[in-house]
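in:
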């Protein structure tokens, strides 16, 4: 098993970058899910 060591981020600039990156990727994931569900509902009601 791989041991992962997580250290706290003490530099506020780095912390902000990490938060922004996570938020952007979360939003991108939400967009993908939204498009996928819209497409699915369109294809099921289109027949």
């Amino acid at each position: 098993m791989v041991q992962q060591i997580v250290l706290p981020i003490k530099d506020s600039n780095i912390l902000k970058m990490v938060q922004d990156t996570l938020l952007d990727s979360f939003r991108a994931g939400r967009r993908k899910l939204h498009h996928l569900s819209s497409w699915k509902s369109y294809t099921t009601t289109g027949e």
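note: The mean pLDDT is 75.
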